Structure formats: structure tokens, C-alpha cells
Amino acid sequence: MLVLVVVLSLGLGIGANTAIFSLLYQMVLKKLPVEKPEELVLIKSPAEFKSGRTSTNNAGQHDSIFNYRTFRELEKRPEGLTGIAGFRALAANLSFRGQTVDGSVMVVSGGYFDTLRVKPVVGRLVEREDDVHGAGRPVAVLAHNYWQSQLGGRRDVLNQPIRVNGHLFTVVGIAPYGFTGTVLGDAPDVFVPMSFKPLMTPNWNGTDRWSDYWIYMAGRLKPGVTRQAAEAALNSTYAGLVEQALPEVKAWNAKRIERFRQSRLTLEPGEKGQSSVRRSTETPLLILMAATGLVLLIAIANTANLLLARAAQRRKEVTIRAALGAGRGEIMGQLLTEALLLSLAGGAAGVLLASWTVSLFVMVLSNGRASEEITATLDWPVLLFAVGASLASGLLAGLYPAWEAGRRTLATTLRDEAGQVSGNLATANVRKALVCAQVMVSALLLIPTGLFLKSLVNLLQVDLGLRTENVYTFRISPELSGYKPAQSKLLFERVEAEVGAIPGVAGVTGSLVPLIAGSTWGNDLNVEGAPADQNFERNSRFNVVGAGYFGKMGIPLVAGREFTESDNAAGPKVAVVSEKFVKHFFGDRNALGRKFGLGGEKPDTEIVGVVRDSKYASVKEEDPIVYYLPWRQSAEIGSLAFYVRSALPAEQVIPQIRRAMKNLDADLPLEDLRTLDEQVRINIRSDRMVLNLAGSFAVLATALAMLGLYGVMAYSVTRRTREIGIRLALGAPLGSIRAMVLNETMFILGAGLLVGVPAAVALAKLVESQLFGVKSFDPWVVAGAVAALCLSALLAGFLPARRAARIQPTTALRYE
Predict the structure, then answer these.
(1) CA end-to-end distance (rounded Å), the chain
(2) 650/661 Cα distance (integer angstroms)
(3) What is the pLDDT of residue 716?
């Protein structure tokens, strides 16, 4: 039984640590699967000077994006670097041999694969001759996962045509297994030359203006050149480009122009690539790693307690061996070896548990789709971590029991045997101290978990500024299937009519930027009546929406009117703005009737309505400054997210939506068909994951701690059997015996809480940035955690107290 309990206890602790470390390794620590990744650098420049049209994605924020001209000039003269790789992931419709799926395409420069030193599995990769602006070759390289999952891994796909966003490319090669680009979370299905970017985004050229920022860049250091030296060399080229760009920013004031003239590139380590997923998951995973480490400490303390009890039972055997000549080192070595064997068995069980757990994580994180980015395979560094954790656990758990056994002599054993049955007082105190530590660690887990729970409750209850219940959402991108803007608009109108005609549907509307999906689109504006200060922030988020959008989405109208079907290309340009937009640009003045234009254009769009602020890209972000335009007035709109309001259950509505869309265009992929509530849950998925895992670890830690507390109290009752018998023989009431045991239980609990609660509050300060609407010290959360531990302790002490009260005096007095 002892072996089973130890293996199970350590297996849970080691398994939890291995599973979280596997995720931490894959999502935070793992280097890119390329030759000499330590030579790679990421190229960045100050974000404050990137005005105009800016478009970012998972690869990084405004400091990481560049315009097309800057990239091409740096690509020609990569001072200090062997080469510069430019890239950008884009949405794509992929059609091969009549099978169309939605996916992603990465436009890459001709030197992308050469700079990264990636070799093809079959064929060749994109080369410099393929990426010539205006004269490139329409070639495509398939990602390994797409090749395997969609095309069966067939080699005859080479030299076959594939249609990407309605345009034909020739498949020339297959990227290697495990290479998913340089951006975790943006694994492309296909790579095409960057010179074809305008074809990939029909309504957005991106190569014809200085003020259009969208390209990400990475480079490789020349042999023997440091990052600082390469940075200085590359800036000699960049300084000239800044001077060339000055005519484009002549509207800035003198101070800002001078700061721009002095701005320089920075090179950052690129061995792990770049990704907002990596940045956003690093802190939660480190928090979970710390939590699982605490669980393992409790499991080690429990194991040490059990080994101490086992050593107490074997002290006669150990004493006899010592009397027969066995040395102290021999005895300690034997017991440590036994502890290490137990911990390695626990480690084996933990690896098995970790494999199952990681498989579950991967399924949740990838929405059930196969992925080469995050896999359930335990890499060799993870297995080494599991072995190291097992050995460390065995040493920590077995060291004191082995030392205690090794120092026993015949005299100490006889003395202990004369009055006790389970060891001396010092050993008992050590066991109590271990349980105190377990209680302390439980508090360290329970209190932050309570804060995460309250944070998640706040997120689920936050006012989104719109009604998400009974709304189904999906997205279509007809422009990626070759539709012209006029054809896309006609299709959108037919979608509104056909889907709106489904029985039980109360309304249909749409938006260019999908709600609460992490996407952010923005523009600089020339607003009539805005402050004239050149340093005034003129950027605003925007969305392009359908007629009746605000009423159908439950966004209250504050003033004016909302869009109607008559707000089309034939009518005057109109806009609806948020309350924050009004406050930012106009203060307390009336916004209705005022006009604005994009960038430096003449104000020609009239504000006809003001709506309440609402969430845009994320539940956790503050309501942003937003303006809305009607999609019927947009000259170029090729994709739309639709919202279908219906009180009918999903199993009735979703199949009907699919049938209606198939009747409109069977080859047009339907993207992200789900409820809007589900979309919100996906948006806060990392918070839910942290809570679920931290909660599981906190419950596990508390259960292990209470198991340890139960063991100590049972040990204490056994050790004090004679004392209890004497008390009962002298007439002590049964209640006082139970109270004596429970008082000792609560003393151990109190000692653990005395240290654990302040430590937990201090620890919570480190995770406060991950919380929403909760401070690191919340008296209700602390009180709840303490109450939970007190209740658990009373349950752990009840059985030993009951057993103590049932001891018969005659039996106790004869107890050895």
C-alpha cells in the first residue's frame, strides 16, 4: 500500500509538472527548427512614427512592422547580416483539384528560406528570382501539415496548379516537417512570393505607399558579427531611408520630425521567432509552472512523511543490521536507493499522465485540428525534465528518513521501544513541520486560484456593450475566391436575404472586423473641429457594418440615427461614431453633422449617429475609440462577418445556415461558424485555462496536504496511545480526548496559515497583471480559502480524534 500511495502521489506531482513544462517548452522556450537559430535577429523600429495605414497580427505590434519600400531597400543592403527575410501571414481560400478550404498563406520574400536556412522535403522553396516586383514567378510552397492532412502527402502534387485566393500558382516544393514559419500561432498552409501580395489582398495593395505598414522582418547575423555591430551597420542604410521618407511626414511638427530623423532600428534575439501568442502565454504558463511545482513539493512532503513512518516500522531491522556491522553510509544508501526507485516509478507514471494531459491541452488549443506547432509528443528536453524531477523528488523525500535511520544505535532503539511505538519526539516534530509546510503551500495555491476565479467571473459579467445571447456568427471572404467588389456586395445582400428567411431568424447583419475576435483595424483621421495640435492622437479603430447593425446587435443609439439600406454608394458618405470618439475629438461639443476624412484627405464623411461604447477586439481591453461606416458605401469590401439572431437551438440553426450558404456558393468556405457567446469564451480562453488548471492543482494540493495532516494525526494518536489510556483511566471525558486531537490538528493548520496567507498575498501581487477587476488582496477570497482549509483540516482530524476516543484504558496500558 505504501508503494502505491507514494507512486500515485509523486506521479500526480511529476505528471502535472511535466505536462505544463511541455507546453512551456513548446510555446515559450523552444527554438525555431532551423540551422543555427541563435544567429537570427528580429528587426524593429519605433512605433510612434508609423502613422497612416497600419496592420498588425500575431507576429507583433507596431514596432515590428515596416512598409514595403523600406523592406526592399534594406533587403538590397543588409549591412551586418547575411540576408533579411520579409514575411506576413494572410487569410486564404485554397483550392486544389476542386477541393476548396479556408486556410492561410504567408507571403515571403525571395530570401526568406535562404536566410532561415530551411531545406525542402521535396522540390524547391521560394527563391529570389520568384520575388521580383511586377515580374515574379507564381510559385507556391506547401506547408508540410497542409500537404499531409489535405493532400495525403502525395509527391505528385509537384508542378500541379493550386488556386490561392482565386489566383493560380504552381506547386514547386514542400516545406520540412515542423517548420511552420517564424510565428507561433500563424502556421501557414502555403508560402508564395511577396511580390504577389496585391493579388492575395485584392482591396489592399500595400506596396505603393510609404505610409502602409504591414511587413515583418527577420535577419541572420554574419559569422563573427555581434548583434550590436550589425545593428549599427544596418542603421547606416536605414538613416538614409528616414531622410527619403521626410517629405511624406511634412505635416508633423518640427520636434516630431527631428525625433523621426534620429530614430534607428533595433535588433532583438530571434532564435524563438516572434509571436504575441508566445508573449501572452509566457506569464500564465510560468504561473502554472510555479503552481505545479508547489503541488510537487506537497507530494514530496507526503512521501517523506510516509518514508519516516516506514523507517519507524523498520527500526528494529535497521538496528540489527547496524549491530551486525553495517555502516551508516550503507544504511542511508539502501534507504535512499529505495526512495529513488519509488520516485522513478512515480516519474514513469507521471510521464504517462503528462502525455494524456498534453494531448487534452493540444486538442483544446488547436480546436481539434492537427498541428505541427503544438503537439502531444513529449520532446527529449521534456523527458529529461521528468527524469530530473523524479530524481530530485526521490532525494528530497528520502534524505531525512535515510539520515534518521542511519544515526540509530541499539541504545536509542531500546529507549524508544520502552515508551513509544512509532519513533521519537524529534521525528514526530519533523512530520508536523512537513505538514505545516503542506498547509502553507496549499494556501499559496488556493488564494491566487480564488483571485483567478473572481477575475473570470468579472470577465464573464463584463458589460460588452452589446447583446451576445442567441447570436450565431460566421465569416465569408468571397474576394479570396476571385469575387470582384461589386460581386461581393451582391453576395452579401443575398446572404442577408437568404439567411434572414430561415424560420426562427429574427435578424441578420454583418461587419468587416469580426467582434471580440482579436482583430484590430485602425486609421489616422482628419477630423473637422478636432484640436489642431500636431501631437494630438488622430488614430481611431474602425468597422464597416450593415444596415440596422446597432439595433440588431443591441448597441444603444445615443444620438442621431443608424445606417439604413439607403446608405449606399449613391448616397452621401455617412458614419456613426462611439461616445469615446466624440469625447476624444470634440470634448463636450455636439458631433452630429461634423465631418472627417481618412488620413490627410479632405473631410467628406458626415457623422449621423452616436452609439454607446462597446467591446471591439477583446473582452479585457478598454472600450476603444471607434467609427463605423456602412459596407454598402465601401468601394472595396471583400469579406464580412455575419451575425444571425435566433432563439432556436444551435442544432436547428447551424445546419440551416450551412444549407443556405451552400445554395449561394457551394465552393465558398464558411469560416468560424459558432455562437457569439462561444466566440467570447474563446477570447478569454487563456484565462479559463489558467483558472481550470490552477483550480485543479489547488484542489490536488489541498487533498494531498489533508492526507498528510490525517497521517500525522493518526501517527500522533498511535504514539500517544498509552498517554490517552492513562487519561481515560483517570476519568477524562471522551470529549476532552477528541478536543485534544482536534486542537493539535488546528494548531498545525494555524501554524501553516500564519506563514501561508501572507506569502500567498505577496505571491498574488506577482500575478495581479493577469487579473481583471481584482486586486492582489481580496479579503473575501482570503477568508474563503482559509475557511476551505479549516473545513478540510477538521475532516482530516475527525477520524484520528474518533479513534482516540475509542481507545480502551486496559488495552492502552498494555500497549508496547
Answers:
(1) 24
(2) 16
(3) 67
Are the C-beta atoms of 661 and 488 separated by less than 8 Å? no
Query: Amino acid identity, residue 683?
Result: N
Helix (H, G, I), strand (E, B) or coil at 122: strand
Distance of CA 81 to the CA centre of its chain: 32
**Buried b / exposed e along 393-406 (16+ C-beta atoms within 10 A):** bbebbbbbbbebbb
**Among the residues of 314-327, which ranges form H helices?**
315-323
Task: Write the single-letter amino acid at 605.
Answer: T
Q: Which residues, other chains included, contact 508 with Cβ-Cβ below 8 Å and sequence gap of 6+?
A: 495, 496, 499, 500, 546, 552, 642, 643, 644, 645
Q: What is the pTM of this model?
A: 0.73
What SS3 state is found at 139?
strand
Bridge partner residues of 102 (DSSP)? 93
Distance CA 411, CA 270 (A): 65
The Cα 270–Cα 438 span in angstroms is: 41
Q: Determine which helix (DSSP H) or strand (DSSP E) holds 688, and give its type and residue range.
A: helix 685-719
Q: What residues contact 116, with CB distance under 8 A and at least 6 apart?
A: 32, 34, 40, 85, 182, 218, 220
Predicted local distance difference test score (pLDDT) of residue 382? 92
Please say whether the beta carbons of 450 and 785 come within 8 A. yes
Type of residue found at 421: V
CA distance 639 to 774: 38
As a whole number of angstroms, the distance between CA 553 and CA 509 comes to 8
Q: What is the pLDDT, as a whole number, of residue 402?
A: 77
pLDDT tens for each residue of 353-411: 888 888 877 776 665 555 667 777 888 999 999 999 999 988 888 887 777 766 655 44
- In the prediction, which pLDDT does 324 show? 63
3-state secondary structure of 126: coil
The distance between the two most distant Cα atoms of the chain, rounded to a whole number of Å, is 106
Closest CA to 207 of 217, 194, 188: 194
* Dist. CA 121–CA 134, nearest whole Å: 29
CA distances from 475 to 96, 627, 634 (A): 21, 21, 18
Report the SS3 class of residue 777.
coil
Sorted by sequence, the CB contacts under 8 Å of residue 4 that are 6+ apart come out as none
Measure CA 627 to chain center. 30
In this prediction, the residues of the chain whose per-residue pLDDT falls under 70 are 1-2, 250-251, 311-328, 364-372, 405-428, 431, 534, 712, 715-716, 718-720, 810-816
| Structure confidence at residue 422 (pLDDT) | 42
Q: Interior CA angle at 95 toward 134 and 664, to 5°?
A: 110
- Give the pairing of strands 574-578 and 605-611: parallel
Q: How far is 238 from 247, CA to CA, in rounded Å?
A: 16
